[in-house]
Amino acid sequence: MKDIILGVKDLSVNYKNKNVLAGVDLEIEKGKIYSIIGPNGCGKTTLIRAMSKSLKPKKGKVLLNGDDIFEMKSKEIAKKMAILNQNNTTMSDVTVKKLVQYGRYAHRDWWKGLNKEDDDITEWAMEKTFVANLKNRRIDTLSGGERQRAWLAMSIAQKPEILLLDEPTTYLDICHQLEILELVSKLNKEEGITIVMVLHDINHAVRYSDEVIVIYDKNIYTKGDSWSILKSQVIEEVFNVQTETIIDKESNKPIFYAKRVI
Ligand SMILES: Nc1ncnc2c1ncn2[C@@H]1O[C@H](COP(=O)(O)OP(=O)(O)OP(=O)(O)O)[C@@H](O)[C@H]1O
Description:
- This protein has helices spanning about 45-50, 75-80, 95-100, 115-130, 145-155, 175-190, 200-210, 225-230, 235-240, and strands spanning about 5-15, 20-30, 35, 60-65, 65-70, 80-85, 160-165, 195-200, 210-215, 220-225, 240-250, 255-260.
- It is α/β, with parallel strands linked by helices.
- The protein starts with a strand and ends with a strand.
- The mean pLDDT is about 95.
- Adenosine-5'-triphosphate binds near residues 15, 41, 42 and 45.
- This is ABC transporter ATP-binding protein.
- It is found in: Cell membrane.
- It holds the Pfam family ABC_tran.
């Protein structure tokens, strides 16, 4: 039987009168990595926000380990789920260590302060994400890649079961993109954290996830492994580009490139 950590049922989201998602059903299995792809404005961020209770849907439910998130307290959700938004600009005037410590407040009341366990988990999170050597640096003095790792450290300091990432590689050069994706993959393998991330690079989505979720026309157009996404007409239909696919001998996974706009 499937072990579902996050279930989306008949989810519809509107912004004022504009309908962005209509009747989305989705099951996220514990321990897997999922990537969400789709054209600009198709509703990827909206889905992530609705799944994390940052946005109230017009209709439908989101179940975290079977519990309706709209009936759960934010703190209870934060103990199980962490979300890393696009272009985080808040809290840029604090040190890396302070930022990572904020992750622990999912488990503690802020007026009681942090204890030894929190200190240990803060250190662990910084080690895991390779920012321990930057702990006394302010966030606004870091490079894009370092900053993203610091935010990831804060997210895992929450000790979540599931991590939602909205475009974690945006603005990073190719080396730092891979560094973040390798790190996410490591957190999945070593810590068992379920990952759902929005990515624009289709080859990254295919390479780093167990399943790719394609959003198009207000709903999930298709969902499947790398072969089912790239060996079908999906990319052409959804992105309007003519594509060619080759096989990467090392990973035995397909790699595609977009040849021209259809
Ligand atoms: N706060 C808002 N108010 C009104 N419309 C919004 C709001 N946020 C998003 N939208 C609209 O909803 C649609 C979906 O937006 P969303 O950000 O979810 O798309 P996306 O797939 O993440 O896009 P991108 O790939 O460009 O990041 C877009 O048409 C967008 O303009």
